[in-house]
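hiii so um. not sure if this is the right channel but i have a protein structure encoded as tokens and i wanna go backwards to a sequence. like what aa goes where. can anyone help
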């Protein structure tokens, strides 16, 4: 079988070696080389030229969980199944990142940092956990993994998704009609939604105003879920107490963007959960073997929903 591989990074040889080890019979070509025929394609943020020149393929594998960049490609073949990564070692990383941000918020790390700068010795009373609700926007593979990991900490957990979920220990909300009630109880709002036509700009002035005063944001999904200016305004007004942002509308974030220097924002450069080569290739190779055996696979993107 022939596999065309395109990665955005300089580690293309590592990807190729991992595919070769997992699928020893495969003939693997690295883009921008292009074989006359292709069975499977594995891509991350591919150039439009790749799909424009691509011979018919059986499936396109996205080397990430979010498919927003691929779906925006004007040349993406309409009929070829697009398959995303499901966890593939990302859930454990998300759990670490979100737990760190949540506990920093709950244990008032920003306030203590400020007190240290001011030379102030001033113990603060513990915040009641029962009043420190955590809202998970997105209850898919990653949202549910994070919910399960947070459960022993004892914060009231709520989850929001498109379709209704039953998750033990989590108050679940579904659809736009239930979004205000969900937001009202989220002292920390963790974003794990895909970027789709329905979710872009979701967190605007109106939705941010529905969060309790003093709420904090953890965005580990996509930058365009938020209206940047509305987020900055909510922080400036004191309605929101802080934001931990791993993802941005434009990456790398332009040097002049106000997020860089905002005192209530902590930033990381899209590292909350990186794609792991061994785990991702093992998952994709398993799916290729199933397809070759005429079986169905999970993780096929619904292009109408956009995820
Ligand atoms: P899933 O597809 O498994 O889950 C998506 C969740 O979002 C589902 O619960 C889905 O609802 C919900 N959802 C989608 N659209 C809507 C909507 N319009 N209204 C309400 N809920 C909605 O994705 P993953 O959990 O695997 O990943 C989530 C996102 O995290 C990715 O799309 C990607 O953008 C981001 N990500 C970021 C990384 C980083 O390094 N920063 C790494 C990996 C992922 P339902 O369950 O009803 O379908
Ligand atoms: C992903 C990502 O979607 O890395 O997998 O953001």
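sure thing!! here u go:
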């Amino acid at each position: 079988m022939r596999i065309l591989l395109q990665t955005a990074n300089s580690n293309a040889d590592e990807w190729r070696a991992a595919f070769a080890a997992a699928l020893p019979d495969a003939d693997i070509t690295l883009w921008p080389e292009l074989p006359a025929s292709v069975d499977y394609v594995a891509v991350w943020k591919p150039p439009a030229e790749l799909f424009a020149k691509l011979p018919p393929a059986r499936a396109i594998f996205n080397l990430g969980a979010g498919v927003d960049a691929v779906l925006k490609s004007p040349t993406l073949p309409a009929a070829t199944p697009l398959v995303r990564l499901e966890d593939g070692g990302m859930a454990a990383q998300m759990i670490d990142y979100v737990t760190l941000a949540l506990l920093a918020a709950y244990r008032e790390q920003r306030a203590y940092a400020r007190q240290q700068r001011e030379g102030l010795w001033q113990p603060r009373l513990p915040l009641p956990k029962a009043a420190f609700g955590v809202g998970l926007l997105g209850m898919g593979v990653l949202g549910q993994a994070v919910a399960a990991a947070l459960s022993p900490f004892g914060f009231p957990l709520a989850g929001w998704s498109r379709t209704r979920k039953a998750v033990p220990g989590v108050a679940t909300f579904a659809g736009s009609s239930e979004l205000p009630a969900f937001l009202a109880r989220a002292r920390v709002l963790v974003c794990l939604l895909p970027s789709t036509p329905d979710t872009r700009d979701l967190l605007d002035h109106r939705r941010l105003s529905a969060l309790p005063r003093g709420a904090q944001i953890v965005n580990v999904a996509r930058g365009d879920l938020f209206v940047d200016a509305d987020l900055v305004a909510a922080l400036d007004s004191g309605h929101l107490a802080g934001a931990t942002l791993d993802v941005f509308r434009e990456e790398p974030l332009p040097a002049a963007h106000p997020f860089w220097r905002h005192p209530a924002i902590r930033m990381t450069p899209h590292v909350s959960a990186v794609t792991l080569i061994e785990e991702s290739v093992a998952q994709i190779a398993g799916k290729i073997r199933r397809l070759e055996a005429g079986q169905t696979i999970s993780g096929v993107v619904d292009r109408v929903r956009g995820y």
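oh and The chain has two domains: 2-88+275-292, 90-267.
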